[in-house]
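Archive entry: two folds, one per protein. Generate the first.
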Amino acid sequence: MAFSCGYWTVGETGVASGSELSTVAERYAGALFELAKEKNETGKVEAALVRFLDALKSSPDLQRFVRSPVFSGGDQLQGLTAVLKAAGIDGLARDFLLVLVRNRRLFAVESVIHSFQKLAAKERGEVEAEVISAHPLTDAQAKNLTETLRQKFGKSPKLTVTVDQSLLGGLILKVGSQMIDTSLRTKLRNLEKAMKEAS
């Protein structure tokens, strides 16, 4: 199946879970990115999508509205139209989000936005770096990490920091297909494994 909104047409799969959800998100994001680039509105669209994502993260009610299959397409269309108006999201970003509603793909909106951000970052020559830390990074730590990554990759890194206290200490860094795990949790697991093998 494919969808069209006057601007674009995108191939689509009927299943949206796991890796297939990622595929659906990448297709939608790719279509939006190409159109935004063509209209020279990549920055404007990305900023609008980030505003929507921030609103989504801060509102449990909006999260339920987006993710729950209980709401009809008509309900979602009406509700989201009001949310976007209140958030000042218009133009291409608004039209695209409403296309997700019409195609019953609104539940994938977070994955779509993250995929769009990756495309935009790549276009700007940035390196996407995901940091999972046991504790929030200080400004100095974030600055040092950013500079280290810039020297290693020769590009300006865009850090996305998530706090996971179960790491106990240290952090996990993901850049593209590379992962560096310096967490205390992993070190303890490795030590436990080594002790079992030695006994």
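Generate the second and append.
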Amino acid sequence: MNWLTFAIATYLLLLLQVGLRGLFDFNVTAIEGAEPNLLLILMVFIAMVAPLHTSLWAALILGLLADLEQRQALVVAGDEPMHAVLVGPWALAFIAAAYVVLQMRGVVYRNSPLAFALTVFIAGMGLYLVHTAILSIRGLPFLPGEAVAGWSATQELIGAFLNLVYSALIALLLHLPLRSSERLWRFRIPTGPARRAV
């Protein structure tokens, strides 16, 4: 894979995701507004085409960027909530979601925008379930570490579902530009046992 193309695409999508957050925000419930996860869409695109190790490394990088982009309010014993960056929850969740796509990609028709959007939705379910589980475990009293302030796994999962619906709709629009740029990515797909995944 061409890592320069990956860096440029990641930068552009992260810039759109962060910079246009208020524009993307779609309040449909009392829960935090829904917004698409553009890094998830990019990860699914890469995992559907790239070799195993490349897909997992790309997922790790995208997850670390998602971790660095979001700040969590942590509850420290008796004090006001402290805002901090938690590195790890999104990174592990992106790796899990990439693994879901890697298991599915043999039966998904890559040229179909609908199949791409459905894959984004299914991989996103794995992504948000792992992320929610990690932050929920962090709040258990017998484990070290501070709990996330105001954390509710139920609200998080409802918000995640809305994010996934929104992400799948955006994936329908991004499918054609991503597929047409495949030449720039220079994916090397192993076709037999003689080829080694890079």
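Annotation attached to the second fold: The chain has one domain: 3-24+35-185. Residues 153-180 form the longest helix (28 residues).
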